[in-house]
Structures are given as structure tokens and as C-alpha cells.
Specification:
Blueprint: H1 9-20, H2 24-29, H3 31-52, E1 58-63, E2 83-89, E3 97-102, E4 107-113, H4 118-130, H5 133-139, H6 142-148, H7 170-173, E5 178-184, H8 186-189, H9 194-204, H10 206-216
Antiparallel strand pairs: 1-2, 2-3, 3-4, 4-5
Length: about 230
């Protein structure tokens, strides 16, 4: 029987040390160790992708680099103290994506639409303006809600231009992101069943993705725009 793919405690120990020694000298000295942990975590992310492909179509996986872009940031520490990857769904007909973020004391997974382009955002809002009942039914379903909780995302302080601030569904219309997040303790991340827990969580979001993909590939009359 194949051993389970897990996140090792040594990875979290290293990230904790990096957080406490976030400078180039320390990192360069410990870079060979980092490369081993990076390879290990990449293997975990590849297993997440493999599991996703059993029930979804994934276009690409992107593992983010450890180096921070400090050009426009007041925080000039050069390295992230987390490892993360995103997973994009396939093609124009499947919308949305998945994200896994591993960090001591701050691990999470996320899914949904965290940077919709202007056209997609307007299409979502117009759908919700017309009828938000199906959307509310999907995000309020027990299975999804028990795992992911409430819909999250940044939102405008008032109605977007062209929308009525007194619309009964303005709480949804004024959102700029339509995402769900789930946090994990270090113990949960380092457990043998973390990969399965990530995958079952992502499976539970599928009805939401199916609805949003339908919305984003049709016009308000339900006709395909692809």
C-alpha cells in the first residue's frame, strides 16, 4: 500500500525559522534545506492536483515562489513565510480556481473568484440583480456551508455604478470577490488525512462552480456566449 502524501513537520519548522530570520544571509546559508522542503511541498501540491483531476478538469497548477516583491511594499522582508499553490480550471467553459496556503499557525484553503475581470464581475452582478434565489440556494446548502461557511470577499461601501443601492440583494451585488476560505490548524495540516480533507472540501464547492460557470458562459437570456 502506497504511503500517504503529507506535509512534514520539518517543513513547518523551517518556515517558522525563516519567519524569525527573514534575511538574505540566513536564507542563503539554509537554501539547500529550503530546496528539499520546497520539493516535498511541491509533491504535495501535485497530489492535490491529481486528486482534483478525478472530479474536475484542471488547466494548470502554479506554485508560488518564496521571494516577496518588495518594490511597492513598506514591509521589506525578502521572503514569504508560507508556501502556496493555485489550481486553475480548464478553458473558458469552466470558471473558478482553487488555492492552498501552508503556513505555521495560518494555513488555509480557498476557492472561488478572487480577481474577476471587469466583464465577469458585471455579468455576475447583473445575474444577481435579475434573480439571486438560485445563487443563495447554492451557497446556503448545508453540505457547502458546513465545510466552507459564508461567502467572503472584498466589497464596495455602496452600490456599484448602475445598480440600485436599495436592491434586496445589494449585499451580494456590491461584492468585488466571490470566495470561500477554510482555515486549518497545524495539527490538521500535518495529519495523515489532510490531503483527503482538502480534496473533499474542494469537491463540496462544485455546485457553486457549476452555477457560476453557467452564469459566466451565458447572457441574461441563458444563451451561450462561447
Amino acid at each position: 500500500m502506497a504511503s500517504k502524501i503529507t506535509v512534514s513537520k520539518e517543513v513547518f519548522d523551517f518556515l517558522s525559522q525563516l519567519r524569525a530570520n527573514n534575511n538574505k544571509e540566513w536564507f542563503e546559508e539554509n537554501k539547500p534545506t529550503f530546496k528539499l522542503h520546497e520539493k516535498s511541498v511541491k509533491g504535495f501540491f501535485e497530489s492535490v492536483k491529481e486528486q482534483l483531476e478525478h472530479h474536475d478538469e484542471i488547466e494548470k497548477m502554479k506554485m508560488f515562489r518564496i521571494y516577496r516583491d518588495v518594490r511597492f511594499s513598506k514591509d521589506k522582508t525578502p521572503y514569504k513565510s508560507h508556501l502556496a499553490a493555485s489550481f486553475s480550471r480548464l478553458g473558458a467553459h469552466l470558471r473558478g480556481g482553487y488555492y492552498v496556503h501552508l503556513s505555521p499557525g495560518d494555513s488555509m484553503i480557498a476557492t472561488g473568484f478572487w480577481a474577476p475581470n471587469k466583464e465577469d464581475l458585471k455579468r455576475i452582478r447583473k445575474e444577481l440583480e435579475m434573480d439571486a434565489n438560485e445563487f443563495r440556494d447554492v451557497i446556503g446548502h448545508d453540505n457547502l456551508k458546513n465545510i466552507w461557511g459564508d461567502l467572503q470577499g472584498d466589497e464596495l461601501k455602496t452600490a456599484p455604478k448602475g445598480f440600485d443601492k436599495d436592491h434586496p440583494d445589494i449585499d451580494l451585488i456590491k461584492k468585488q470577490q466571490y470566495v470561500f476560505t477554510r482555515k486549518f490548524t497545524d495539527k490538521e495540516v500535518l495529519s495523515d488525512n489532510f490531503l483527503d480533507e482538502v480534496d473533499s472540501s474542494f469537491k463540496a464547492i462544485r455546485p457553486y462552480f457549476d452555477l457560476m460557470s453557467d452564469i459566466l458562459t451565458t447572457n441574461l437570456n441563458g444563451e451561450s456566449v462561447l
